[in-house]
Design brief:
heterodimer; A: 305 residues; mainly alpha; 13 helices; B: 297 residues; two-stranded antiparallel ribbon; 12 helices
Chain lengths: 305, 297
């Protein structure tokens, strides 16, 4: 088990290295990043100064090594918009994004798991059909549009919830629901199919023939075994939540890293964009790492591999 | 051996069978119907559009659905410049179809070839190629696309390219997995035994057997791409006016969300129904192309 965790840790470092390449080359897609950064009214001399200040006049390899050694120490340069270290700002904003993602994930799981189980137990019943229809709708709907619809209903017409900001705890409700619905849709489908597969297994029949109560059969024998694919998709969906936060945070003016990224991109604040991308990726990779470790906890068989 | 198999069932039968199963599957039929309508609107929009989608009418601004005046009937209402929402939705279908189809063709081609080579060659090259995929997949798709559009700049052509050149990663991983399964099959070993060259084995014996997964994935990706385009245009990082897109319509609607609910409601329904159609079609395709499910009805 220790070897497994260690090998995954090495893989994690390698992936982060690849991410650093992606982040490094992305801002250089148009060749000279100065063309992206410099305000249109800069003259040649000012551009040259800016270029030297950022080290863009050095050879590419040297630039990358400087970027990497600084990034490892958490130094992504200064955000020129906020005139503060980009890293500081990212960490400040990341808290809001994590809060939103956690609330959305909680909503997603609370809806998806019970709905998936009931759909599997009562296959082709009315409740199964309705939840299938809702799940299809939930996947096809653009999350930001759902957010706008919620604003029309709950802010404009009913005046129950604030349409934007994060000034009061109630402000979390609509963004979290908006993000959580997509996750609930995907996860409930998966829970249903995973449960259907497990329910037809011999050990479930044995549990039933022993005369165990339905609740014990479903929760202890079936659900535990259906958990592995559910946890996998849950992990992937968390990554999807991080991505979705970019759009949903913009709809609700939620002060998270996603909205900050859009702002920084619009003013071409390169240090912020790089730091933000890096931390989105790091969060995603750490989530997947945690999922791998959770596998070991829920499936004793993996331990002996 | 391949010649025998190829000469067995005529293609026409496959097509007829596809149509037959489609008629028996309500999901497949609905999906096909929706996709067909959207594609037809994209192609013949200007002919069926009730009004000009770009020209405004300042005397008919913010009119509710069902309003009509001398210049025409606004079945779904009008926007801040007095443009007919229905006509704009019809015009917007063109961008969605174009972006969906072209960028999926680009990403599908790259991804299938990448996955094919990675899985087939194996060894060190495979590990290296997959680490690159890991690195790209580690940044959530929409964030990557948002950042690239910010750096490269917006516009329809650029957007199609960006979505096409970033979306291939998913195919690469899926196709590689399929190739790993297929390359151990007896018929592949037989092809080697018959003295076929590696390239021929890869293209003639392995590619045809993994392509159905790519087709199913492509259907899913069309939906993902349509959603991504609308998100980007909504955020102001995608297509720019005067091109009409559903995402831009939603971005307009958001500004007048307090008074004109129809400006946000209808373009969103258009996106949802379109993506739903694509998803249904993809579900049906998956069942149809999967020999294990086929025939069970």
């Amino acid at each position: 088990m220790r070897a497994f965790i260690l090998s995954r840790l090495i893989q994690l470092v390698v992936t982060m290295f690849m991410v650093s390449l992606v982040v490094f080359f992305m801002v250089r897609l148009r060749g000279d990043p100065i063309l992206v950064m410099a305000p249109p009214n800069f003259d040649a001399e000012q551009i040259a100064k800016l270029r030297a200040a950022w080290g863009f006049d050095k050879p590419l390899g040297e630039q990358y090594i400087t970027f990497l050694t600084k990034a490892v120490r958490g130094d992504f340069g200064k955000s020129f918009q906020a005139n503060r270290p980009a890293m500081e700002l990212v960490i400040e904003r990341l808290g809001y994004t994590y809060l939103l993602a956690a609330a959305a994930a909680a909503i997603g799981v609370t809806i998806a798991i019970p709905l998936g189980i009931v759909s599997a137990l009562k296959r082709n019943s009315l409740i199964d059909l309705v939840s299938t229809a809702l799940a299809s709708l939930g996947t096809a709907m653009p999350s930001f549009w759902l957010g706008l619809m919620l604003i029309i209903i709950f802010s404009v017409h009913l005046r129950m919830l604030p349409a934007f900001g994060a000034l009061e705890p109630r402000a979390l409700i609509m963004p979290a629901v908006t993000l959580g619905v997509g996750m609930a849709a995907r996860l409930s489908r998966l829970t249903r199919s995973a449960m259907l597969e497990v329910l037809s297994q011999d050990y479930v029949r044995t549990a039933r023939s022993k005369g165990l109560a339905q609740k014990a059969v479903v929760l202890r024998h079936a659900l535990r075994n259906a958990l592995i694919p559910i946890v996998t998709v849950f992990g992937l969906q968390l990554g999807w939540l991080l991505g979705g936060s970019v759009v949903v945070e913009s709809v609700f003016s939620w002060p998270g890293l996603g909205r900050q990224m859009i702002d920084s991109i619009n003013v071409r604040d390169i240090a912020m964009v790089q730091a933000g991308l890096f931390f989105f990726a790091l969060s995603f990779i750490l989530i997947n790492y945690a999922i791998d470790v959770i596998y070991i906890l829920i499936d004793p068989r993996i331990r002996f591999d | 051996m391949t010649a025998d198999i190829a000469s067995l069932p005529p293609r026409r039968n496959a097509l007829l069978r596809a149509l037959g199963t489609m008629l028996h599957s309500p999901v497949g039929a609905t999906g096909t119907f929706i996709v067909a309508v959207v594609v037809l609107l994209a192609l013949f929009g200007p002919q069926v559009s009730p009004q000009d989608p770009i020209k405004g009418n300042l005397r008919a601004r913010f009119e509710e659905p069902g309003y009509s005046d001398a210049s025409g009937y606004y079945s779904l209402g009008s926007d801040q410049l007095g443009r007919d929402i229905l006509s704009r939705i019809i015009a917007g279908s063109r961008v969605s179809v174009l972006v969906g189809v072209v960028s999926v063709l680009i990403s599908g081609t790259i991804g299938v070839l990448y996955g094919l080579v990675s899985g087939f060659v194996g060894g060190r090259l495979d590990s290296l190629m997959m680490r690159i995929v890991d690195g790209l997949l580690a940044v959530p798709f929409i964030i990557l696309v948002v950042a690239i559009s910010g750096v490269v700049g917006a516009g329809l052509g650029t957007l199609i390219l960006i979505l096409g050149l970033t979306g291939w990663v998913t195919y690469a991983r899926v196709i590689r997995g399929e190739v790993l399964k297929v390359r151990e099959q007896d018929y592949v070993i037989a092809a080697y035994a018959l003295g076929q060259r590696r390239l021929v084995v890869m293209l003639r014996h392995i590619l045809p057997n993994v392509i159905s997964s790519a087709i199913v994935l492509a259907a899913v990706q069309v939906g993902v791409t349509v959603l991504a385009e609308s998100s980007l245009s909504f955020l102001g990082l995608g297509v720019k006016p005067p091109t009409v897109t559903w995402g831009l319509m939603l971005s307009d609607g958001r500004q007048y969300i307090n008074s004109a609910w129809w400006m946000t409601t209808f373009p969103g329904i258009a996106i949802t129904v379109t993506v739903l159609g694509v998803v249904f079609l993809g579900d049906w395709l998956r069942d149809f192309l999967d020999p294990n499910v086929r025939g069970r009805g």
